[in-house]
Amino acid sequence: MAFNDLLKQVGGVGRFQLIQVTLVVLPLILMASHNTLQNFTAAIPPHHCRPPAHANLSEDGALEAWLPRDRQGRPESCLRFTSPRSGTEANSTEDTEPCTDGWIYDNSTFPSTIVSEWNLVCSHRALRQLAQSLFMVGVLLGAMVFGSLADRLGRRKVLILNYLQTAVSGTCAAYAPNFPVYCAFRLISGMSLASISLNCMTLNVEWMPIHTRAYVGTLIGYVYSLGQFLLAGLAYAVPHWRHLQLLVSAPFFAFFIYSWFFIESARWYSSSGRLDLTLKALQRVAQINGKQEEGAKLSMEVLRTSLQKELTMGKSQASAMELLRCPTLRRLFLCLSMLWFATSFAYYGLVMDLQNFGVSIYLIQVIFGAVDLPAKFVCFLIINSLGRRPAQMASLLLAGICILVNGVIPQDQTIVRTSLAVLGKGCLAASFNCIFLYTSELYPTVIRQTGLGMGSMMARVGSIVSPLVSMTAELYPTIPLFIYGAVPVVASAATALLPETLGQPLPDTVQDLEGRRRGKRRQQQQEQQKQMVPLRTSAQKNGL
Protein backbone atom coordinates (compact mmCIF):
# COMPACT_ATOMS: atom_id res chain seq x y z
CA MET A 1 0.00 0.00 0.00
CA ALA A 2 2.19 2.80 -1.32
CA PHE A 3 -0.45 5.49 -1.64
CA ASN A 4 0.30 6.89 1.83
CA ASP A 5 3.93 7.39 0.74
CA LEU A 6 2.75 9.24 -2.36
CA LEU A 7 0.66 11.58 -0.19
CA LYS A 8 3.70 12.35 1.96
CA GLN A 9 5.77 12.98 -1.17
CA VAL A 10 3.36 15.66 -2.43
CA GLY A 11 3.20 17.46 0.91
CA GLY A 12 1.41 15.28 3.47
CA VAL A 13 -0.79 17.75 5.32
CA GLY A 14 -0.16 20.91 3.33
CA ARG A 15 -1.97 23.96 2.06
CA PHE A 16 -4.23 21.88 -0.19
CA GLN A 17 -5.40 19.59 2.60
CA LEU A 18 -6.15 22.51 4.91
CA ILE A 19 -8.16 24.38 2.26
CA GLN A 20 -10.10 21.43 0.88
CA VAL A 21 -10.90 19.91 4.27
CA THR A 22 -12.21 23.29 5.46
CA LEU A 23 -14.39 23.81 2.40
CA VAL A 24 -15.72 20.24 2.42
CA VAL A 25 -16.51 20.33 6.14
CA LEU A 26 -18.17 23.77 6.15
CA PRO A 27 -21.59 22.62 4.80
CA LEU A 28 -21.89 20.12 7.67
CA ILE A 29 -22.71 23.02 9.99
CA LEU A 30 -26.04 23.48 8.23
CA MET A 31 -26.53 19.75 7.71
CA ALA A 32 -26.88 19.42 11.48
CA SER A 33 -29.53 22.15 11.36
CA HIS A 34 -31.53 20.27 8.72
CA ASN A 35 -31.52 16.98 10.66
CA THR A 36 -33.25 18.42 13.74
CA LEU A 37 -34.89 21.40 12.06
CA GLN A 38 -38.42 20.18 12.81
CA ASN A 39 -37.88 20.60 16.53
CA PHE A 40 -38.50 24.26 15.72
CA THR A 41 -40.31 24.42 12.36
CA ALA A 42 -42.77 21.77 13.57
CA ALA A 43 -43.01 22.90 17.20
CA ILE A 44 -46.49 22.61 18.71
CA PRO A 45 -47.70 25.96 20.12
CA PRO A 46 -50.33 25.96 22.90
CA HIS A 47 -53.72 25.92 21.22
CA HIS A 48 -57.45 25.56 21.79
CA CYS A 49 -60.63 25.42 19.74
CA ARG A 50 -61.90 28.43 17.90
CA PRO A 51 -65.50 29.24 19.01
CA PRO A 52 -68.32 28.99 16.45
CA ALA A 53 -68.65 31.81 13.94
CA HIS A 54 -72.03 32.76 15.38
CA ALA A 55 -70.69 33.04 18.96
CA ASN A 56 -71.10 36.42 20.64
CA LEU A 57 -68.19 36.45 23.07
CA SER A 58 -69.34 39.63 24.81
CA GLU A 59 -72.70 38.06 25.71
CA ASP A 60 -71.46 34.51 26.29
CA GLY A 61 -68.96 35.51 28.93
CA ALA A 62 -65.73 35.63 26.92
CA LEU A 63 -63.86 32.85 25.14
CA GLU A 64 -63.42 30.64 28.23
CA ALA A 65 -67.12 29.86 28.27
CA TRP A 66 -66.65 27.72 25.18
CA LEU A 67 -63.58 25.80 26.42
CA PRO A 68 -63.72 22.76 28.73
CA ARG A 69 -60.85 22.34 31.19
CA ASP A 70 -58.50 19.39 31.67
CA ARG A 71 -57.35 18.02 35.05
CA GLN A 72 -54.67 20.72 35.36
CA GLY A 73 -57.27 23.43 34.76
CA ARG A 74 -55.96 24.29 31.30
CA PRO A 75 -58.23 24.64 28.25
CA GLU A 76 -58.71 21.43 26.29
CA SER A 77 -56.76 21.48 23.02
CA CYS A 78 -59.16 19.43 20.90
CA LEU A 79 -62.67 19.93 22.37
CA ARG A 80 -65.15 22.77 22.81
CA PHE A 81 -68.64 23.04 24.26
CA THR A 82 -71.61 22.90 21.94
CA SER A 83 -72.98 25.88 23.88
CA PRO A 84 -71.31 28.37 26.28
CA ARG A 85 -70.85 27.27 29.92
CA SER A 86 -69.81 29.05 33.09
CA GLY A 87 -68.52 28.29 36.57
CA THR A 88 -68.04 24.60 37.49
CA GLU A 89 -69.64 23.54 34.23
CA ALA A 90 -66.37 24.45 32.52
CA ASN A 91 -64.72 21.40 34.16
CA SER A 92 -67.20 19.04 32.50
CA THR A 93 -66.53 17.32 29.17
CA GLU A 94 -70.19 16.58 28.48
CA ASP A 95 -71.86 18.12 25.43
CA THR A 96 -68.55 18.75 23.71
CA GLU A 97 -67.53 18.52 20.08
CA PRO A 98 -64.31 18.59 18.04
CA CYS A 99 -62.81 21.85 16.81
CA THR A 100 -64.82 22.10 13.61
CA ASP A 101 -64.00 25.81 13.15
CA GLY A 102 -60.27 25.40 13.60
CA TRP A 103 -57.92 26.43 16.38
CA ILE A 104 -56.47 29.51 18.01
CA TYR A 105 -52.71 29.27 18.61
CA ASP A 106 -50.50 31.01 21.15
CA ASN A 107 -47.91 32.64 18.88
CA SER A 108 -45.83 34.22 21.64
CA THR A 109 -42.98 31.67 21.31
CA PHE A 110 -43.49 30.34 17.78
CA PRO A 111 -45.14 32.93 15.48
CA SER A 112 -45.52 30.36 12.72
CA THR A 113 -44.82 26.62 12.39
CA ILE A 114 -46.04 23.96 9.97
CA VAL A 115 -48.27 22.77 12.81
CA SER A 116 -50.10 26.08 13.18
CA GLU A 117 -50.16 26.83 9.43
CA TRP A 118 -51.61 23.48 8.37
CA ASN A 119 -53.38 22.56 11.66
CA LEU A 120 -51.37 19.40 12.35
CA VAL A 121 -52.98 18.91 15.76
CA CYS A 122 -55.60 16.69 17.38
CA SER A 123 -56.82 14.16 14.79
CA HIS A 124 -54.04 15.27 12.40
CA ARG A 125 -51.19 15.29 14.92
CA ALA A 126 -49.64 12.11 13.42
CA LEU A 127 -48.87 14.09 10.26
CA ARG A 128 -46.24 16.05 12.16
CA GLN A 129 -44.24 12.87 12.81
CA LEU A 130 -44.92 11.76 9.25
CA ALA A 131 -43.02 14.78 7.91
CA GLN A 132 -39.93 13.87 9.97
CA SER A 133 -40.23 10.18 9.05
CA LEU A 134 -40.39 11.05 5.35
CA PHE A 135 -37.26 13.17 5.75
CA MET A 136 -35.53 10.14 7.27
CA VAL A 137 -36.85 7.96 4.44
CA GLY A 138 -35.13 10.41 2.10
CA VAL A 139 -31.90 10.02 4.07
CA LEU A 140 -32.28 6.25 3.79
CA LEU A 141 -32.79 6.40 0.02
CA GLY A 142 -29.92 8.85 -0.39
CA ALA A 143 -27.52 6.57 1.45
CA MET A 144 -28.53 3.66 -0.79
CA VAL A 145 -28.46 5.52 -4.11
CA PHE A 146 -25.62 8.01 -3.75
CA GLY A 147 -23.29 5.71 -1.79
CA SER A 148 -22.97 3.32 -4.73
CA LEU A 149 -23.02 6.20 -7.22
CA ALA A 150 -20.02 7.86 -5.57
CA ASP A 151 -18.00 4.64 -5.93
CA ARG A 152 -18.77 4.64 -9.66
CA LEU A 153 -18.71 8.35 -10.60
CA GLY A 154 -16.41 9.73 -7.93
CA ARG A 155 -16.82 11.70 -4.69
CA ARG A 156 -16.55 15.18 -6.24
CA LYS A 157 -19.25 14.85 -8.91
CA VAL A 158 -21.77 13.47 -6.44
CA LEU A 159 -21.00 16.22 -3.91
CA ILE A 160 -21.58 18.92 -6.53
CA LEU A 161 -24.94 17.38 -7.42
CA ASN A 162 -25.94 17.04 -3.77
CA TYR A 163 -25.19 20.67 -2.89
CA LEU A 164 -27.43 21.86 -5.71
CA GLN A 165 -30.13 19.35 -4.80
CA THR A 166 -30.14 20.50 -1.16
CA ALA A 167 -30.24 24.18 -2.11
CA VAL A 168 -33.14 23.78 -4.54
CA SER A 169 -35.24 21.34 -2.51
CA GLY A 170 -34.72 23.22 0.77
CA THR A 171 -35.68 26.52 -0.83
CA CYS A 172 -38.75 24.98 -2.44
CA ALA A 173 -39.78 23.53 0.94
CA ALA A 174 -39.69 27.06 2.38
CA TYR A 175 -42.22 28.17 -0.26
CA ALA A 176 -44.34 24.99 -0.19
CA PRO A 177 -48.05 25.87 -0.66
CA ASN A 178 -49.32 22.83 1.22
CA PHE A 179 -48.23 19.98 3.47
CA PRO A 180 -47.79 17.21 0.83
CA VAL A 181 -45.51 19.43 -1.28
CA TYR A 182 -43.52 20.34 1.84
CA CYS A 183 -43.03 16.63 2.68
CA ALA A 184 -41.94 15.85 -0.87
CA PHE A 185 -39.20 18.49 -0.87
CA ARG A 186 -38.07 17.49 2.62
CA LEU A 187 -37.67 13.91 1.39
CA ILE A 188 -35.52 15.11 -1.52
CA SER A 189 -33.43 17.20 0.90
CA GLY A 190 -32.90 14.15 3.08
CA MET A 191 -31.53 12.18 0.13
CA SER A 192 -28.88 14.77 -0.70
CA LEU A 193 -27.93 15.50 2.92
CA ALA A 194 -27.20 11.81 3.56
CA SER A 195 -24.81 11.74 0.63
CA ILE A 196 -23.11 14.99 1.70
CA SER A 197 -22.26 13.57 5.11
CA LEU A 198 -20.85 10.34 3.63
CA ASN A 199 -18.84 11.93 0.81
CA CYS A 200 -17.47 14.61 3.12
CA MET A 201 -15.87 11.97 5.35
CA THR A 202 -14.62 9.83 2.47
CA LEU A 203 -13.12 12.62 0.34
CA ASN A 204 -11.27 14.07 3.33
CA VAL A 205 -10.01 10.72 4.67
CA GLU A 206 -8.72 9.62 1.26
CA TRP A 207 -6.61 12.78 0.90
CA MET A 208 -5.09 12.60 4.40
CA PRO A 209 -2.07 10.59 5.65
CA ILE A 210 -2.65 7.77 8.12
CA HIS A 211 -1.69 9.63 11.29
CA THR A 212 -4.16 12.51 10.66
CA ARG A 213 -7.37 10.57 9.92
CA ALA A 214 -8.58 10.63 13.54
CA TYR A 215 -8.14 14.40 13.61
CA VAL A 216 -10.30 14.76 10.50
CA GLY A 217 -13.03 12.56 11.98
CA THR A 218 -13.03 14.54 15.20
CA LEU A 219 -13.11 17.86 13.32
CA ILE A 220 -16.17 16.72 11.39
CA GLY A 221 -17.86 15.73 14.65
CA TYR A 222 -17.18 19.12 16.22
CA VAL A 223 -18.45 20.96 13.15
CA TYR A 224 -21.70 18.99 13.43
CA SER A 225 -21.96 19.97 17.12
CA LEU A 226 -21.35 23.60 16.19
CA GLY A 227 -24.31 23.26 13.85
CA GLN A 228 -26.55 22.38 16.79
CA PHE A 229 -25.53 25.59 18.56
CA LEU A 230 -26.11 27.51 15.36
CA LEU A 231 -29.60 26.04 14.97
CA ALA A 232 -30.61 27.19 18.45
CA GLY A 233 -29.43 30.73 17.69
CA LEU A 234 -31.01 30.88 14.24
CA ALA A 235 -34.32 29.46 15.48
CA TYR A 236 -34.42 32.02 18.30
CA ALA A 237 -33.59 34.92 15.96
CA VAL A 238 -35.82 33.74 13.09
CA PRO A 239 -38.85 32.02 14.65
CA HIS A 240 -40.99 31.99 11.48
CA TRP A 241 -40.68 28.49 10.01
CA ARG A 242 -40.52 29.54 6.34
CA HIS A 243 -37.76 32.08 6.98
CA LEU A 244 -35.81 29.55 9.07
CA GLN A 245 -36.15 26.86 6.40
CA LEU A 246 -34.87 29.27 3.77
CA LEU A 247 -32.03 30.49 5.98
CA VAL A 248 -30.52 27.00 6.41
CA SER A 249 -31.01 26.07 2.73
CA ALA A 250 -29.90 29.07 0.66
CA PRO A 251 -26.17 28.84 1.62
CA PHE A 252 -25.97 25.53 -0.25
CA PHE A 253 -26.05 27.55 -3.48
CA ALA A 254 -22.68 28.99 -2.42
CA PHE A 255 -21.40 25.52 -1.50
CA PHE A 256 -22.46 24.32 -4.95
CA ILE A 257 -20.47 27.08 -6.67
CA TYR A 258 -17.17 26.58 -4.84
CA SER A 259 -17.41 22.75 -4.91
CA TRP A 260 -16.43 22.87 -8.59
CA PHE A 261 -12.89 23.69 -7.37
CA PHE A 262 -12.58 20.47 -5.33
CA ILE A 263 -9.94 17.97 -6.46
CA GLU A 264 -11.22 14.42 -6.88
CA SER A 265 -9.74 11.69 -4.69
CA ALA A 266 -6.55 10.38 -6.31
CA ARG A 267 -7.02 7.18 -4.34
CA TRP A 268 -10.41 6.70 -6.02
CA TYR A 269 -8.86 7.40 -9.41
CA SER A 270 -6.20 4.73 -8.86
CA SER A 271 -8.71 2.18 -7.61
CA SER A 272 -10.77 2.86 -10.74
CA GLY A 273 -7.75 2.21 -12.95
CA ARG A 274 -7.45 5.89 -14.08
CA LEU A 275 -3.72 6.27 -13.72
CA ASP A 276 -3.54 9.39 -15.91
CA LEU A 277 -6.04 11.24 -13.71
CA THR A 278 -4.27 9.97 -10.58
CA LEU A 279 -1.01 11.53 -11.80
CA LYS A 280 -2.72 14.81 -12.74
CA ALA A 281 -4.43 15.07 -9.32
CA LEU A 282 -1.23 14.32 -7.36
CA GLN A 283 0.81 16.84 -9.37
CA ARG A 284 -1.83 19.51 -8.88
CA VAL A 285 -1.80 18.88 -5.12
CA ALA A 286 2.00 19.00 -5.09
CA GLN A 287 1.87 22.39 -6.82
CA ILE A 288 -0.63 23.79 -4.30
CA ASN A 289 1.48 22.45 -1.42
CA GLY A 290 4.65 24.05 -2.83
CA LYS A 291 6.20 20.67 -3.73
CA GLN A 292 6.59 21.22 -7.47
CA GLU A 293 9.90 19.35 -7.60
CA GLU A 294 8.42 16.29 -5.89
CA GLY A 295 5.41 16.44 -8.18
CA ALA A 296 7.68 16.58 -11.22
CA LYS A 297 9.36 13.33 -10.11
CA LEU A 298 6.05 11.53 -10.45
CA SER A 299 5.33 9.86 -13.76
CA MET A 300 3.13 7.16 -15.21
CA GLU A 301 5.96 4.63 -14.75
CA VAL A 302 6.44 5.58 -11.08
CA LEU A 303 2.73 5.30 -10.37
CA ARG A 304 2.43 2.08 -12.31
CA THR A 305 5.18 0.58 -10.15
CA SER A 306 3.93 2.02 -6.85
CA LEU A 307 0.26 1.30 -7.43
CA GLN A 308 0.63 -1.99 -9.27
CA LYS A 309 -1.71 -3.80 -6.91
CA GLU A 310 -4.44 -1.15 -7.17
CA LEU A 311 -4.25 -1.24 -10.97
CA THR A 312 -4.41 -5.01 -11.25
CA MET A 313 -7.03 -5.67 -8.58
CA GLY A 314 -9.11 -2.49 -8.54
CA LYS A 315 -10.09 -2.02 -12.18
CA SER A 316 -13.63 -3.29 -11.61
CA GLN A 317 -15.77 -1.61 -8.98
CA ALA A 318 -17.35 -3.93 -6.44
CA SER A 319 -21.13 -3.91 -6.21
CA ALA A 320 -23.25 -3.71 -3.08
CA MET A 321 -23.93 -7.46 -3.38
CA GLU A 322 -20.26 -8.08 -2.61
CA LEU A 323 -20.99 -7.00 0.94
CA LEU A 324 -23.02 -10.20 1.35
CA ARG A 325 -21.27 -12.46 -1.17
CA CYS A 326 -17.71 -12.06 0.13
CA PRO A 327 -17.20 -13.63 3.62
CA THR A 328 -14.71 -10.98 4.72
CA LEU A 329 -16.97 -8.10 3.70
CA ARG A 330 -20.08 -9.83 5.00
CA ARG A 331 -18.65 -9.98 8.50
CA LEU A 332 -17.83 -6.28 8.40
CA PHE A 333 -21.22 -5.40 6.95
CA LEU A 334 -23.28 -7.29 9.56
CA CYS A 335 -21.31 -5.99 12.54
CA LEU A 336 -21.20 -2.39 11.32
CA SER A 337 -24.91 -2.49 10.47
CA MET A 338 -25.68 -3.31 14.10
CA LEU A 339 -23.53 -0.41 15.30
CA TRP A 340 -25.06 2.10 12.86
CA PHE A 341 -28.62 1.03 13.65
CA ALA A 342 -28.17 1.08 17.43
CA THR A 343 -26.45 4.49 17.48
CA SER A 344 -29.07 6.21 15.33
CA PHE A 345 -32.01 4.40 16.95
CA ALA A 346 -31.12 5.57 20.46
CA TYR A 347 -29.85 9.01 19.34
CA TYR A 348 -33.06 10.10 17.62
CA GLY A 349 -35.10 8.57 20.41
CA LEU A 350 -33.57 11.22 22.67
CA VAL A 351 -33.17 14.33 20.50
CA MET A 352 -36.36 14.54 18.44
CA ASP A 353 -38.77 15.38 21.26
CA LEU A 354 -37.17 18.34 23.03
CA GLN A 355 -40.51 19.86 24.09
CA ASN A 356 -41.04 17.03 26.58
CA PHE A 357 -38.10 18.11 28.78
CA GLY A 358 -40.18 20.81 30.43
CA VAL A 359 -37.60 23.58 29.88
CA SER A 360 -37.00 26.09 27.11
CA ILE A 361 -36.60 24.28 23.80
CA TYR A 362 -33.78 26.67 22.87
CA LEU A 363 -31.94 25.96 26.13
CA ILE A 364 -32.18 22.18 25.81
CA GLN A 365 -30.93 22.43 22.21
CA VAL A 366 -27.86 24.32 23.45
CA ILE A 367 -27.31 21.81 26.29
CA PHE A 368 -27.55 18.88 23.90
CA GLY A 369 -25.02 20.59 21.64
CA ALA A 370 -22.69 21.53 24.53
CA VAL A 371 -22.40 17.97 25.86
CA ASP A 372 -20.95 16.89 22.52
CA LEU A 373 -17.81 18.97 23.06
CA PRO A 374 -16.30 17.05 26.02
CA ALA A 375 -17.80 13.75 24.84
CA LYS A 376 -16.15 13.94 21.42
CA PHE A 377 -12.87 15.14 22.92
CA VAL A 378 -12.71 12.14 25.26
CA CYS A 379 -13.63 9.91 22.32
CA PHE A 380 -10.81 11.47 20.29
CA LEU A 381 -8.29 10.72 23.04
CA ILE A 382 -9.44 7.10 23.24
CA ILE A 383 -9.43 6.73 19.44
CA ASN A 384 -5.84 8.00 19.19
CA SER A 385 -4.43 6.15 22.20
CA LEU A 386 -6.37 2.90 22.70
CA GLY A 387 -7.93 2.53 19.27
CA ARG A 388 -11.21 2.75 17.39
CA ARG A 389 -12.68 -0.48 18.74
CA PRO A 390 -12.54 0.41 22.47
CA ALA A 391 -13.92 3.88 21.75
CA GLN A 392 -16.85 2.44 19.80
CA MET A 393 -17.66 -0.18 22.40
CA ALA A 394 -17.38 2.18 25.39
CA SER A 395 -19.51 4.95 23.86
CA LEU A 396 -22.39 2.61 22.95
CA LEU A 397 -22.25 0.67 26.21
CA LEU A 398 -22.21 3.77 28.42
CA ALA A 399 -25.02 5.39 26.42
CA GLY A 400 -27.21 2.31 26.81
CA ILE A 401 -26.55 2.14 30.56
CA CYS A 402 -27.48 5.81 31.03
CA ILE A 403 -30.78 5.32 29.19
CA LEU A 404 -31.58 2.10 31.09
CA VAL A 405 -30.90 3.76 34.45
CA ASN A 406 -33.11 6.65 33.38
CA GLY A 407 -35.95 4.17 32.99
CA VAL A 408 -35.97 3.30 36.70
CA ILE A 409 -35.56 6.87 38.02
CA PRO A 410 -38.87 8.30 39.35
CA GLN A 411 -40.60 10.76 37.03
CA ASP A 412 -40.42 13.61 39.58
CA GLN A 413 -36.58 13.52 39.59
CA THR A 414 -36.40 15.91 36.66
CA ILE A 415 -32.79 17.06 37.14
CA VAL A 416 -31.43 13.52 37.47
CA ARG A 417 -33.40 12.24 34.49
CA THR A 418 -32.37 15.19 32.29
CA SER A 419 -28.71 14.81 33.32
CA LEU A 420 -28.70 11.12 32.43
CA ALA A 421 -30.38 11.85 29.10
CA VAL A 422 -27.79 14.53 28.30
CA LEU A 423 -24.93 12.16 29.24
CA GLY A 424 -26.43 9.41 27.12
CA LYS A 425 -26.83 11.79 24.20
CA GLY A 426 -23.18 12.84 24.50
CA CYS A 427 -22.05 9.21 24.37
CA LEU A 428 -24.21 8.57 21.31
CA ALA A 429 -22.74 11.65 19.62
CA ALA A 430 -19.27 10.26 20.34
CA SER A 431 -20.40 6.91 18.91
CA PHE A 432 -21.48 8.65 15.69
CA ASN A 433 -18.11 10.38 15.54
CA CYS A 434 -16.29 7.08 15.86
CA ILE A 435 -18.48 4.96 13.57
CA PHE A 436 -17.98 7.30 10.60
CA LEU A 437 -14.19 7.09 10.92
CA TYR A 438 -14.16 3.38 11.81
CA THR A 439 -16.34 2.40 8.86
CA SER A 440 -14.31 4.44 6.36
CA GLU A 441 -11.12 2.75 7.59
CA LEU A 442 -12.51 -0.79 7.58
CA TYR A 443 -13.93 -0.93 4.04
CA PRO A 444 -11.54 -1.04 1.05
CA THR A 445 -11.47 1.85 -1.41
CA VAL A 446 -13.28 -0.05 -4.18
CA ILE A 447 -16.39 -0.36 -2.01
CA ARG A 448 -15.81 2.20 0.75
CA GLN A 449 -18.52 4.63 -0.29
CA THR A 450 -21.01 1.80 -0.86
CA GLY A 451 -20.20 0.43 2.60
CA LEU A 452 -20.62 3.84 4.19
CA GLY A 453 -23.89 4.23 2.30
CA MET A 454 -25.21 0.90 3.57
CA GLY A 455 -24.16 1.80 7.10
CA SER A 456 -25.95 5.14 6.85
CA MET A 457 -28.95 3.29 5.43
CA MET A 458 -29.11 1.13 8.56
CA ALA A 459 -28.80 4.27 10.67
CA ARG A 460 -31.83 5.75 8.90
CA VAL A 461 -33.78 2.55 9.49
CA GLY A 462 -33.04 3.13 13.17
CA SER A 463 -34.18 6.75 12.99
CA ILE A 464 -37.41 5.71 11.25
CA VAL A 465 -38.19 2.94 13.76
CA SER A 466 -37.32 5.13 16.75
CA PRO A 467 -40.55 7.24 16.74
CA LEU A 468 -42.63 4.06 16.51
CA VAL A 469 -41.04 2.74 19.70
CA SER A 470 -42.07 5.92 21.56
CA MET A 471 -45.69 4.90 20.97
CA THR A 472 -45.22 1.98 23.42
CA ALA A 473 -45.31 4.57 26.22
CA GLU A 474 -49.10 4.25 26.05
CA LEU A 475 -48.70 0.71 27.43
CA TYR A 476 -46.18 1.68 30.12
CA PRO A 477 -44.32 5.03 30.36
CA THR A 478 -40.77 3.63 30.64
CA ILE A 479 -40.95 0.92 27.97
CA PRO A 480 -39.38 3.19 25.29
CA LEU A 481 -36.40 3.96 27.54
CA PHE A 482 -35.74 0.28 28.22
CA ILE A 483 -35.81 -0.44 24.49
CA TYR A 484 -33.67 2.60 23.62
CA GLY A 485 -31.13 1.50 26.24
CA ALA A 486 -31.07 -2.24 25.56
CA VAL A 487 -30.34 -1.96 21.83
CA PRO A 488 -26.98 -0.09 22.11
CA VAL A 489 -25.87 -2.33 24.99
CA VAL A 490 -26.45 -5.45 22.90
CA ALA A 491 -24.95 -3.90 19.75
CA SER A 492 -21.74 -2.89 21.55
CA ALA A 493 -20.78 -6.58 21.67
CA ALA A 494 -20.43 -6.56 17.86
CA THR A 495 -17.26 -4.47 18.12
CA ALA A 496 -15.43 -7.51 19.52
CA LEU A 497 -15.72 -9.12 16.07
CA LEU A 498 -14.15 -6.16 14.22
CA PRO A 499 -10.41 -5.59 13.66
CA GLU A 500 -8.55 -2.58 15.03
CA THR A 501 -7.52 0.08 12.48
CA LEU A 502 -5.34 2.37 14.63
CA GLY A 503 -2.16 3.14 12.69
CA GLN A 504 -3.16 0.88 9.79
CA PRO A 505 -3.08 2.05 6.15
CA LEU A 506 -6.39 2.24 4.31
CA PRO A 507 -7.15 -0.99 2.42
CA ASP A 508 -7.73 -0.50 -1.31
CA THR A 509 -9.01 -3.94 -2.27
CA VAL A 510 -10.73 -6.92 -0.67
CA GLN A 511 -7.46 -8.78 -1.05
CA ASP A 512 -5.86 -6.22 1.28
CA LEU A 513 -8.40 -7.10 3.96
CA GLU A 514 -7.85 -10.80 3.54
CA GLY A 515 -4.09 -10.33 3.55
CA ARG A 516 -4.32 -8.33 6.77
CA ARG A 517 -6.33 -11.12 8.42
CA ARG A 518 -3.87 -13.77 7.24
CA GLY A 519 -0.98 -11.67 8.48
CA LYS A 520 -2.59 -11.33 11.89
CA ARG A 521 -3.18 -15.08 12.12
CA ARG A 522 0.40 -15.75 11.05
CA GLN A 523 1.68 -13.35 13.70
CA GLN A 524 -0.41 -15.07 16.38
CA GLN A 525 0.92 -18.47 15.30
CA GLN A 526 4.50 -17.21 15.45
CA GLU A 527 3.93 -15.83 18.94
CA GLN A 528 2.49 -19.16 20.05
CA GLN A 529 5.49 -20.98 18.59
CA LYS A 530 7.87 -18.64 20.40
CA GLN A 531 6.06 -19.38 23.65
CA MET A 532 6.35 -23.11 23.02
CA VAL A 533 10.13 -23.06 22.43
CA PRO A 534 11.10 -22.37 26.11
CA LEU A 535 8.70 -25.08 27.23
CA ARG A 536 10.23 -27.64 24.88
CA THR A 537 13.75 -26.66 25.93
CA SER A 538 12.83 -27.01 29.58
CA ALA A 539 11.25 -30.38 28.96
CA GLN A 540 14.35 -31.62 27.14
CA LYS A 541 16.60 -30.51 30.01
CA ASN A 542 14.42 -32.28 32.52
CA GLY A 543 14.52 -35.40 30.34
CA LEU A 544 18.30 -35.33 30.28
UniProtKB/TrEMBL annotation:
Alphabetized SUPFAM superfamilies for the sequence: MFS general substrate transporter
Membrane recorded as keyword: yes
Xref: Gene3D superfamilies: MFS general substrate transporter like domains
Coiled-coil stretches: none
Keyword Transmembrane helix: yes
Subcellular location: Endomembrane system
Gene Ontology molecular functions: transmembrane transporter activity
TM helices/strands, residue ranges: 130-147, 215-238, 244-263, 332-350, 362-383
Region (Disordered): 507-544
A cellular-component GO term for this protein: endomembrane system
Domain named Major facilitator superfamily (MFS) profile: residues: 27-503
InterPro entries linked to this entry: MFS_dom, MFS_sugar_transport-like, MFS_trans_sf, Orgcat_transp/SVOP
UniProt similarity note: Belongs to the major facilitator (TC 2.A.1) superfamily. Organic cation transporter (TC 2.A.1.19) family.
PANTHER family xref list: SOLUTE CARRIER FAMILY 22 MEMBER (PTHR24064)
Protein known as: Solute carrier family 22 member 6
